[in-house]
Design goal:
The chain is mainly alpha-helical and about 375 residues long. It has one domain. About 70% of the residues lie in helices and about 0% in strands.
Amino acid sequence: MGRRGGESIILIDLLRFACAMLVLAYHFGTAFGHGASPNLRGMAEIATLPPGWKQWTWFGWVGVELFFVISGYVITGSAEGAAPGAFLWRRAKRLVPGALACATVTAILLMLAGAAIGPLIFEWWKSVLFVPVAPWIDPSYWTLGMEAAFYLLVAGHLCLRGGSGRIEWLGWALAAVCLAFWTALLFHDLPARSGLQRLPQLLLLTHGSCFALGIFARAASRRGTSMARNAGIALALAGAAIEIAAKSIGERHGLGVTGPVWVPGAIFALGAALVFAAHRLQPWFVRLPAGWAPAAGLATYPLYLLHQDGGGAAFVMLQRAGVAPVPAILLVTLALVLAAFAVARWIEPPLRGAMDALVRFSRALGRDSLRSASLPTG
């Protein structure tokens, strides 16, 4: 959520939720018709939505790129004045409870839909332990490894003297390395080499420019623009533009879509512009009903983790119960949104509290052990 010191940046919260809905539309309207994920691929009901929907949803994957921009913006704020350990602990409390809850719900839904239990247990463990390589209980977990890599990079930067106040240097480094990576691929059959190999992802070579844009957006909102900052933004935009163009061409060709290839780039440009303008536009959004935008921002994470395989399994089961495909997917979408709000409101907070309690218990146990070790023995 776009929050610092109790301040919720409403447009950031709303944009996060819109990005999740973009990705949901892509998977429901496009990916399901092309076989969906390995856990769902053998279920005939998964590919029953109208084929024409992909013309209006194929570009929804760009919501992930915007997620990374928002992450760069929010994490930069979270890192301001923070110690590395405290920063990482806050990030762990943000990611772990949602991943645990959503992986469990997804596993149950897949089992009810008829998926094999043995592989699901293995995938569940990999998901809740944040193992950065597939398979996971839901393919959407692929982004969590990249988020974790970004957090570790920020924490490492905080270890440097004055690192908290110079995080823009990290933005410059990410933008430069990412642009160099895509430039190197530009002359080597770029659409076929769309950066989907896992190692470049985890090294932030493929999407580092998106994180960098968020870093620069946060800096610009707090300290204004400058020639150096504008140059960094241009560098990050260049890398992001090549990555999005490559994926657009590859997706459009692979899916047989005839729509304009520039649509994902236009959506990304609009979303990035809104991130840069979010702080200035805050007065326009404070009139919205209190609490709804922050709640939507918090619900984004569970919605993203639940929608693909959990939603797909529910879609399959509704059809087996006699519901037609289009009403079934509408019901699933509504149920997922409600479930995401419920997870964010009632499940994640107690799990975060349990994490804090476990740390307090471990520290107390450690102090007791040290005292016991100093006593005479015999």
